[in-house]
């Protein structure tokens, strides 16, 4: 999507990986931006088919010559039936826009986009008004990059994937499109300027803001679909620490009981919408959904909720990644030890899942990454995280990249029933009840083919899961902690989910975030903070208190005491940079 010229070969390999089911292109010519320079836009789309019965190639072009490139999912706001494709339904909504007045047309486009519940990045060419619309959703859950021309021979680029710095010959070529609103490039204005207007001069920006924010004099804004964090704190609450025994479980008041039911309902509905209509791509497919599974509280609750909505004959892959520590196993005389913290937690948590849902085949996939393999794939991963370039970005991206690839091992289970033992391997499901599962230690290779991955991202930001929330409470009580929560929620859209989208889509898969449904965020923001967390209690009790209660209600008591551990430490990717102990997370990659 650019004026003047475009060579797709720089990034087409990346796009083919992210969208393996269909690729297509479409060109639009529109006047000249300066004498002798024809203005041309080239749209290229690659589709990962995850909605509807039919695979719909992109770009999608309608009778009015409008062009749509859509990288997203519509889970609400626009009616999309299970058998329908959301790209087609979105184009149908956009086709209803009147062509009478430009300003009215703008409002209609904005109205359609702000109604969508779900993650997206979008590029939409509106032929009747000669405007190129582009945006990311208000929480920044999908990738969209741009490059603005730096001279008269340069071009304007929009892309959901990046080319490597070696291809662009400029490490600063790409920038993330901010998820702070909807952008509109006035191609007619650019074409009619005879070269006097830059691309930046021709872009309008319609910002997201909270509905209750005071007006800044600009009536053209988009109302965020959730309010600010509820600031109310009951006057009866104290701030003194509460000492409790090791296995203490806080009592459940009537208000807390209602909150647990409310979270169960809104989070359950978010999970349901993200897993129920994933299409099959091969006739023998038994696993459509996988969970990025550290065994922690967030992903465990998601797994239990997924079990409520998928048919029992569908397996669920639990992707658990661990990295070899090169500092410990330098001499290679002993086998690598992959018993990292997330592996230990994962093994314990999957047993709880098997206890509450013995009808389900839970494929606990142990993804073990040797140091040499991590280093061999390092540059490819660096290329995918562009324009981000810090040690921490690489550390987190490595964990997601290998987890999403899904290549690991599965331990054979011996299922015992009525004194008779039989073997259950991989996707051969047991349909009997009253089963006790034990691993006999035999390992078999396994490659997860599930295209939809669920992540627990967003729970910590909204439920006080970070140590900074507890520190804010220690320094200034409830109100300072609430202010810290608001800061975290405000910056979710800039929390690098675009990076994670590029990393995971590199394997032709898609990550979905049930905790970041705007319906869930709306409910969380409206709920009083003392019902969601209580930092008077110690670690493992007070933070994410509401989710711990839900975890116990779902039948998982041991895991309800798990606490936050960042993925780069839980999976030990923080050891995989190949550098020294002095290397810091915010350092630029060499």
TrEMBL record:
Transmembrane segments: none annotated. One of its GO terms (biological process) is asparagine biosynthetic process. Residues 476-574 form the Asparagine synthetase domain. InterPro entries: Asn_synthase (IPR001962), Asn_synthetase_domain (IPR051857), GATase_2_dom (IPR017932), Ntn_hydrolases_N (IPR029055), Rossmann-like_a/b/a_fold (IPR014729). Residues 53-160 form the Glutamine amidotransferase type-2 domain. The keyword Amino-acid biosynthesis applies. Keywords: Amino-acid biosynthesis, Asparagine biosynthesis, Glutamine amidotransferase. One of its GO terms (molecular function) is asparagine synthase (glutamine-hydrolyzing) activity. This is Glutamine amidotransferase type-2 domain-containing protein.
